[in-house]
Every structure is written in structure tokens, then in C-alpha cells.
């Protein structure tokens, strides 16, 4: 597996680029995910020509229209930042990114709930998006993006990492001379993963794949990709996971004895109640997949969605 290419706010890697000359080193991003990632670090404030250290900035205006101003002297750096964004984001399109991790709360990099101050006085509303993050998302609406703060939440983290690896497999597929059969295979091996996030989207995507002979492949790929990324952004809840696990268990109807079936059902119900993590039923199912040589299941990304070293399925 080649390293997964991710954009990242430079300060999260420990680069001393913040307004006060400091950094916001995040050990999970650097030391854990970093084993599998190739980071493209960008500090938009330094990139647009501001010094280190520099006067701190904040967003000023209302939720629909705000500017980026220095806090004490009121210098407006919005146009400077926008001039940086255009060529930088255009260049990133050549990089084939699989995702982006932004620094939270920043007037440049924050993805959501960035404070927007009223022009004269009053309480700020948490309604803004950092200027660079906003421009980036406008150009990459389907790319997985997250903030480092939200990545501390186990479920959000798992969801984000699942999506960036889906993105990597998608890009590997479309980088070749993609044929209809490639999409069929992609859809097949992602079946249970997509179902765990959104059974409705899985059905809709199945109809698209069934219409492969009737529609131009390029249009179909675009539509399929939109559905794929929208589906997987939804949280895979314990109920949806249990539904998928039961489907997979059905493949072993003839193989498992009554005791093994009973044991598996107990594990599934303990998982749904939050007593044990998802990795427990997944590990047992993977054991049965190998033992009974179920090649269709062995290919299912659902049973190994990301590197085990990331321990993303280990939380109950
Ligand atoms: S939050 Fe963004 S702009 Fe601010 S120091 Fe980090 S990378 Fe630079």
C-alpha cells in the first residue's frame, strides 16, 4: 500500500508557524497516522506572506459575510489570503490528495464553529469557517476533511480514516484505464462497508452499477463517487454494524455448529450494547473466513477497512 497523501495544517506537524512562533504538534497525527501518511503541510498565513511571529487575527462580520482582521490594529488580510488560496488550491488538485486535516478554531484553517466577531461590539458567534478552509472545501466538496480536535473523538476518527482509505482505493482505480468491470469489482468489495454506513445509498449505488451498459461510464463514475462519499460520511452506528455482521454470519450457516452460532450471537449483542468493541466480532469473523475459505468475504474491505495498527475498531 503506498502512503496515503493528506494535506495538513503545518502547525499540527510541529512546525513553528503560529502567530506566536509556536506550534500545535499532534502526536496521533504525526506518530500514529504518520506511519501510513505522506503529509503535504501548508500554513496559509505564512504562505500568504505574513511573518512569524505576527499579530493574531480573527474573523469580523456576520455569519454570511466576514473578513479576516488583525485583532489590535484591524488590518484586513482577507484579500491577501484569497490571493494565496487560488493558486495553492489549484496546485493541490495535481497532488491527488485523499484527505485533509485542518487546525481547529483558526480564522484561516478552522473547519467549523470559528468565532465571528461583530464589527463593533458584542458576543462572537461560532458560525465561521477559516478563510483558507472555506475556499479549499469549495474546490474539494467530496474530499474527506477533519479537524485535529474532532479526530480525538473515536467514532469521528474511525469514520475519517475509513473515508481516506476509500478515497485512496478510488483514486488507484480511476488512475488506471478504468473499465466497467473495475467499478463492478470496487462496488463488490465495498458492499458491506457501504451498507454499514448507509444501506439506502448502497441500494442506490447498486442500481447505478446495474445500469453500466446503458450510461456512459464517465458520467456514471461521477455519480457513483458522489453517492459513495456521501454514504460513507454517515456514521456507521452499532445497529447498522450489527445488521451487516448478521449478513456476513449468514455465509457460515452450513459451517458453524450450534455452540459457535450461539457464541457469535452473544458477541453481536454484547457489541450492540456497547460492552465490547467492534474488533471482537470482526476478528472472529475473519477467523471463520480463513478457516472456511470464504474468498468473497476475504475480499470485503469491511473486514479490514484500515491498518490494524491504528486500532480504530478497538473502542466500545
Ligand atoms: S492554524 Fe493554519 S494558519 Fe494558523 S499556524 Fe496553523 S497552519 Fe498556519
SS strand fraction: 5-15%
Hetero compounds: iron/sulfur cluster
Q: How many domain regions?
A: 2
Supply the number of helical segments.
Answer: 13
Main sheet makeup: 4 strands, parallel
Strand tally is: 8
Strand ordering within the main sheet = 2-1-5-8
Strand and helix order: EHEHEEHEEEHEHHHHHHHHH
The termini sit apart by 28 Å
How would the global form be characterised?
elongated
Mean pLDDT: 97
Radius of gyration: 22 Å
Give the low-pLDDT segments: none
Share of helical residues: 40-55%
Structural class: alpha/beta
Description:
With 316 residues, the chain is an alpha/beta fold. It has helices at 27-32, 44-47, 78-92, 131-139, 154-175, 180-189, 191-197, 199-210, 217-233, 238-249, 258-272, 279-291, 295-298, and strands at residues 4-9, 37-42, 57-62, 65-70, 99-102, 114-117, 125-128, 145-147. The chain has 13 helices and eight strands. The chain is elongated, with a radius of gyration of 22 Å. The chain folds into two domains: 4-152, no CATH class; 154-316, no CATH class. Helix 7 crosses helix 8 (199-210), helix 8 runs antiparallel to helix 9 and helix 10 (238-249) runs antiparallel to helix 11 (258-272). Helix 1 links the parallel strand 1 and strand 2. The strands form two sheets. It has a four-stranded parallel beta sheet with strand order 2-1-5-8. Iron/sulfur cluster (SF4) binds at residues 9-11, 17-18, 43-45, 103, 106, 108-109.
